[in-house]
Amino acid sequence: MSHPLYEVVTGEGLMRPCFKTRTGLYSGESAQMVENSLNIHGDEILYVGDHIYTDVSQFKVHLRWRTALICRELEEEYKALIHSRGPRATVVELINQKEVVGDLFNQLRLALQRRTKGRPAQTLAATNMDDRELTENMQKLLIVMQRLQYSLLLAQLFAQHAMSKVGEEFMAGVLDHLPSILAFTAPLPNSYDRIQPNTWSGAYQCWGKEREAHCIFYYLAMCIVIGKLN
């Protein structure tokens, strides 16, 4: 058979192959077999389970089964969502600030590049700056972007941790992939040089020795959130 049928024979879930059905608990086979075995069809059947969308679509569209979805209790999720409204607003604010600062940084960097080609900057303010002023302002903006990035990471963590089961699963994924996350939050492209992928040392190198305190800061932030989860 293309879809084998198994009878569940023990409370521990031990199964054995079978070819005919009687009263009991079964796993496998096909929807067609279910209809034939029960001699009922279409909306006479109520399919209850934690289905994925494709299963629901298949049964409702093609077989006309009724479906009931079993899902987690949402009351705590809703309360946590309301509770995290403030941190989520902070995340949006920080993202907007970072985008503005990033645009200014890119304008100054482009102005410096155009100047080396003997071309004027695209803005009057950048045109009136000399090379030293451009470089100093770029350094200042880079520092601001780094601080916004660290604040944003922390705000995102605190916005997520209150989401009970959803938050726990999110944090589990963050911890599992933390070295990669640290690597891809590096502020400069040249930070990726000679990084060993999927390693703590690679993540540390990506932040750079001059930013080792920020690695520790991020790690402590993670510990704080995990402590609140527990």
UniProtKB/TrEMBL annotation:
Protein name: Cytosolic purine 5'-nucleotidase-like isoform X2
Organism: Gossypium hirsutum
GO biological process annotation, one example: oxoacid metabolic process
Keywords for this protein: Hydrolase, Magnesium, Metal-binding
InterPro entries found in the cross-reference section: Gln_synth/guanido_kin_cat_dom (IPR014746), Gln_synth_cat_dom (IPR008146), HAD-like_sf (IPR036412), HAD-SF_hydro_IG_5-nucl (IPR008380), HAD_sf (IPR023214)
Domain GS catalytic span(s) in chain numbering: 160-210
Alphabetized GO MF terms: 5'-nucleotidase activity; glutamine synthetase activity; metal ion binding
Entry's family note: Belongs to the glutamine synthetase family.
